[in-house]
Amino acid sequence: MTSNTFIFEQPLNERIRIFLRIEALMERLTFFNAQDNHHSSYHSLLTILEITALVERGDIKQEVIKELERQNKVLNGLISHQKVDESRLELTLSNIKSALGNMHNMDGKLGEHLKRIDFLLTIKQRASIPGGSCNFDLPQLGFWLDLDYPSRLDDIMRWAEPYFQVYEVIQLILKLIRESAFGTTVSAHKGFFQQNLDTSLSNQLLRIELDSSDNIFPEISAGKHRYSIRFLQPQDSFDRIPLQLKQDVDFNLFLCAL
């Protein structure tokens, strides 16, 4: 995969869907944290609150542990295979073991540590109101944003610390899943492709690689038994609805089923 290609991903189960969302939010948080300005620090706070709302929907820590244990079992089954890279497999299993230890050592449910911080709860309540975080609404927020950058960053990193711990493990999980598949060049007839899933496999993630010069993007629909892809092309303005291609499209398909 090179810089002149686009990768589009579609999760094939709810666990991976949540992991991808956490990954996207943590990448956003990392970006904003690197910017020394008031607006970025404010958006770091909003991203932390968004991550908190996401992890509160279920026991993410247990989902991460279950996925690590599943991957550990699958990879241990490869030890006896003659063609396996033993040193790489041992390193991977060691990383999984270390990640499992870190997850088991985490105290409490994710997000619980922020429920005692009135400052963040107040921002959460006002964030849904358009312009509700102005200085006259939240003077404490205005005061915090006027602190020096290292002080703001220290607070943000402290509030987000458990999320960074989980993010590191999720990165390992997704890396193993993404690397589990080799790309296959296939063709979408008149911009449409459909295929059944092998339900005997642990289907995790669908990845589509396109040349950036193609000026197209996929719309993916996936269920437990099959998936379909429509390739669309923007019109001369994004104000207008994109059109489905009428010609055949060749693309690289990665079906990740670790």
Quick summary of this structure?
The protein has 258 residues and is α+β, with helices and mostly antiparallel strands.
Which fold name fills CATH's third level, the topology of the largest domain?
YacF-like
Task: Outline the low-pLDDT stretches.
Answer: none
In total, the number of strands is 8
Q: In angstroms, what is the radius of gyration?
A: 22 Å
State the secondary-structure class: alpha+beta
What is the number of domains? 2
Shape: globular
How far apart, in Å, are the first and last alpha carbons? 20 Å
Strand order of the biggest β-sheet: 1-4-8-2
Largest sheet: 4 strands, antiparallel
Commentary on this structure:
The chain has seven helices and eight strands. It is an alpha+beta fold. The protein folds into two domains: 7-178, YacF-like, CATH 1.10.3900.10; 184-256, YacF-like domains (YacF-like). The longest helix has 30 residues, at 149-178.
SSE inventory with pairings:
Elements: E1 5-11, H1 14-33, H2 38-55, H3 60-76, H4 86-105, H5 118-127, H6 139-145, H7 149-178, E2 184-188, E3 192-196, E4 205-211, E5 217-222, E6 226-233, E7 243-244, E8 249-256
Antiparallel strand pairs: 1-4, 2-8, 3-6, 4-8, 5-6, 6-7
Helix pairs in contact: 1-2, 1-7, 2-7, 3-4, 3-7, 4-7
Task: Write a concise keyword list for the protein shown above.
single chain; 258 residues; alpha+beta; YacF-like; 2 domains; four-stranded antiparallel beta sheet
